[in-house]
Amino acid sequence: MIDFTFYSPTKFVFGHDTESRTGELSCQYGARKIMIIYGGGSAIRSGLLDRVKHSLDAAGLSHCEMGGVQANPTDKKVREGIAMAKAEQADFLLAVGGGSVIDTAKSIACGVKYDGDFWDFFIGKVKVGDALPVGVVLTIPAAGSEGSGNAVITNEQTLQKLGIKQPMTLRPKFAIMNPVLTMTLPAWQTASGICDMMVHILERYFTNTENTEIGDRMCEGVLMAIINEARKVMQNPNDYDARANIMWSGMVAHNGTCGVGCEEDWSGHQMEHEISALYDVTHGAGLAVITPTYMEYMASHNPRRIRQFAERVFGVATDFGSEKEIALEGVRRFRDFLSNDLKLPITLNELLPTLSHDEIERAIPVFVERLHKNKGERFGDFYPITPDVSTEIYRMALK
Hints:
two-stranded antiparallel ribbon
């Protein structure tokens, strides 16, 4: 285990009707003028936005709002939000939604405090020094952004999908988590969110750092819990306890707890970002294609962790065969879960049904070129990802 600093100050308020405490919690963190940020019309149609505003009104807090944040959020909406927050003199941002809304709020939060272009943070030109405080009313368990200091935004002009990681400044002050709010999610969105949180764990689990037994067992335990609860949720969307376990798992998967003391990887996420940046696919669905394919490749090149995953998470017997055979059986069972239980795509052809096989083949060199332009000719802590390696993984995902 390597040395680490872990800082996670977010206050989580979990359970029934907790959105009614939004005003109270905002006051605790010194809010006076709140800018509410939300996505499409579901927050309005469900009455959630009205309940949140009523809570703010009851606490004597003034507020303005910006809606329309889309999945795979873009810099255009961030820039709009920065301008509004400055004009309205907002001193607190409230994200009502899922990861896209929260990441947009975080990006606005640091952009308001910076005289230059907020995109400078994402291309590594400058580091975030200060940011407006952010609160969250979570509606989609997936990205885990309610408990992390991370944000991912796509630049509409360059189609770069890049992230920042600032745990000291961008972790939300509070996160309201009411599992009832997730019961009306479409099955596709629920399933994609489940895959996203599982891969957040795997990106930490696939490490070459030795002697991380605590982290390993935490990763494995949460993965097994997600698999168990996911099957319940997909069968019965109104199962409150299953929804609650899934909601909390999404936070645990990405607040850093599962990755303390190890070198994390994130190669799979980087490879998926190029697909969703160009084709606007659902991030979790893209991960359902790329992550098992990445694992299949690693079964031949760095199999130890894949084999351990197979044995400890999916129960592959230790005498099943060689290390590679055990690893590949674990990948097969993972794919079966994604395809049969979650009904997610597991090949690029399934993920991009409007494109022909030949069109997807021609897109692979574009993915590779963009990937290595953004991440360098060689990246990855678990295994070095060069253009030859990324090309092979993308091609393996065609099938």
